[in-house]
Specification:
This protein is an alpha+beta fold. The chain contains five helices and twelve strands. Strand 11 and strand 12 form a beta hairpin.
């Protein structure tokens, strides 16, 4: 048996059911903690499952902000300072990372409230998450409003990369699974990863 939803069916689904269904349809996603700091020095960290690779030259990453009325600290912080960090969530901290999605009062540090540790490298303005293995420091580049649902695509340039030498290969590949980085489905289900195979660069078959 299979279940088919047409457009009318989707529109008539109960709200939470629809959120869970649609969020799961994109498959497994990366799960990251984004760290920022306000101009007055108040740190913030929040979990995101919308981080995407945008290009390697220049090195760009993007992520989707929720609809404008629901923005809390992440967006105003990165816009006012121009810097933020992206940190892979690991098995050891996924419960704490998930808790950062709670609606804390403005001015409350999710680092402190959720038991995570701020970490700073050299003069980079935004806080990294000490407990994470794979970390990036980014500078804000530009944003694109998405009119269809009032979200924003934020694009940043990678200014700093911090990874364990043990997972960094001579080719530049990262053995992400060895860093215990997790993936997730939907908004609340976390998964470990298992490497299958690294495939060679694909070439068109030669004609015989």
């Amino acid at each position: 048996m299979i279940k088919i939803f047409n457009s009318d069916d989707i529109n008539q689904l109960e709200r939470i059911y629809r959120i869970n269904l649609i969020n799961a349809l994109s498959g497994f996603k990366s799960v990251n903690l984004i760290g920022t700091k306000s101009k007055t020095g108040q740190p913030n960290v929040a979990v995101f499952s919308s981080v995407i690779h945008m290009g390697s030259n220049p090195p760009l990453m993007g992520f989707i902000m929720r609809p404008l009325p629901n923005q809390r600290d992440t967006y105003p912080n990165l816009k006012s300072t121009g810097f933020y960090t992206i940190n892979h969530v690991t098995e050891a901290i996924y419960k704490k990372a998930h808790q950062t999605s709670a609606k804390y009062e403005k001015g409350v540090s999710e680092f402190e409230a959720c038991g995570l540790t701020e970490e700073y490298h050299e003069d980079f303005a935004a806080p990294f998450v000490k407990e994470c293995a794979v970390k990036m420091g980014l500078s804000y580049v530009e944003e694109y409003p998405i009119k269809a649902n009032n979200t924003i695509l934020i694009i940043g340039k990678i200014e700093k990369v911090i990874v364990p030498e043990s997972i960094l290969k001579d080719t530049g590949h990262l053995n992400i699974h060895e860093s215990n980085s997790l993936t997730m489905s939907g908004l609340d289900t976390y998964f470990k990863t298992e490497k299958l195979e690294r495939m060679p660069y694909a070439h068109k078959p030669k004609l015989s």
